[in-house]
Amino acid sequence: MRARRTETPSAPKLDWEIFRTLLPYIWEYRGRSIIAMVLLLLAKVATVSVPLVLKRMVDVLDASSGAILALPLGLLLGYGALRFTASAFEELRAALFARMRYGIMRKISLQVISHLHDLSLRFHLERQTGAITRDINRGASSISNLLNYLLFRIVPTLVEIGLVAAVLLKTYDAWFALVVVVTFTIYVALTLVVTEWRLRHRVAMNKAESRANAHAIDALINYETVKYFGNEAFEVARYDEDLIKWEAAAVRSQSSLSLLNLTQGLVIAVGVTLIMVLAAKGVVAGEMSVGDLVAVNAYLLQVFLPLGFLGTIYSVIKHALSDMERMFELLDREPEVQDIPDAQDLKVELGEVRFEEVEFGYDAERQIIHGLSFRVPAGKKLAIVGPSGAGKSTLARLLYRFYDVDAGTITLDGQDIAKATQRSVRDAIAIVPQDTVLFNDTIFYNIHYANLDATREEVVEAARVAAIHDFIESLPDGYDTVVGERGLKLSGGEKQRVAIARAVLKNPRILIFDEATSSLDSASEQSILSALRDVAAEHTTISIAHRLSTITDSDEILVMDGGRISERGTHAELMVLNGVYTNMWRLQQAEDDSCEASVEPLSP
Prior knowledge:
By secondary structure, the chain is an alpha/beta fold. Helix content is about 65%, strand content about 10%. The protein contains 19 helices and 10 strands. It starts with 14 loop residues before the first helix and ends in a 6-residue tail after the last helix. One of its GO terms (biological process) is intracellular iron ion homeostasis.
């Protein structure tokens, strides 16, 4: 028995692991990154030079002997040039990073979507669509935020602090540099500790908000149900209960932010005061000029003003890393069904289908198929019937290789599908499912989706075969009519006819009809069955049916019960057996007779 793989999520990533995952994408833009870093350094050198020019200007203007106009004018022009140069380098760096920033977002988003399409059916049956799309959108946005704050806020601030500390150390007393470094260290440590504490309130606030939104959306989606039972007040009260929790968490979050801002202000005030005291003492002692005092003050503004955003930046980065982790977890999921190394494409020319001792279960405790064997010769029609839960639709999923069998083999024209590429297996088959879900696009798009190389004439012909062309032409926009979310603008029967048109347009060797006429009235059913018989004449056909009247012309009928074949044969042969199939037939005939009797007019 083959080991069953599972698509279990990976263990949570550490922050450094997320950065490591991101590095290969950044490395693709290493040329731009190097140039941008050089521009960053040049911009900060220009920025740090501004206070020195400012000091020189003040000292010249303060000279008691009278200043020559040309000198301060030159300094003023130099001051303006440095300001412009710093700004120009910053904007050039931003322009260079734009390509990297948005290019990485596009590539990762594309990779995630591609990977989701590669994941197996089990994952998509268990996932929450809203949560998945939210994780992708937030993850992609978080990449942009992370790169923006790291490369435009944190790295520039660190470079600037390093340059300022170096200038203060070289130009003035070492105490100036020491106070700046110590103040910065205390400020950062305090911010990180308090922000980590604040994040708990923020998380609680976000969870309460998500619950409130989920309840509100659920109630609005089920608007009619709320009205049926008169539960408007109950829904409003439930929404308010969530909002009360959100309000409490929001107040705690804001209060903790105020505490953080207060302590940050205290640290900066102490640091600035110490440095200004040192500078004032230097001026009084004649060791420093008034220009030096102005320069030191300018350096303090350059260093400490960006720190005011540190708490916000740290919080944003933590949230970004969390969102990116959820997105990268999707990439870490291994597909349950994978092509083997050097898998070959199937070459299906005849369309013979064979199941040999197939066993399968969705999990170890839920065995669905037990040692199933049957053969559908090329061009023949096989019908599969049985009660709900007998495993009928599971056979279609196995044939499509949405799951790998636990034991046994499934072959198409003698080729084991487990050794072939999944794409070639699915190219050989078309299905009309019981529940047809359409894209929120035009009718033409939904039919054409089955064969993207088909012409408009071929799409129209497929619609004719499916007996839906006249209906489409009766619509104001014809084939350009948008069907709505999940095709809700069409009736169940109309959606199934679109699905039949898809199968016709794809024109594979093997057709599967999974309750293909379950949503049609009797007249439409007969029209569709006639068309399907013409289509199936040149294809191998497997019909999964509930209404036995639709499969009486099958070459063989399998009666399944509990994942096993209990009876097999043609309609006539099974009726002679007087077994399960016969009982099902008689029961359905009685139901049909009862329905016909119920619509007969009453006697006057």
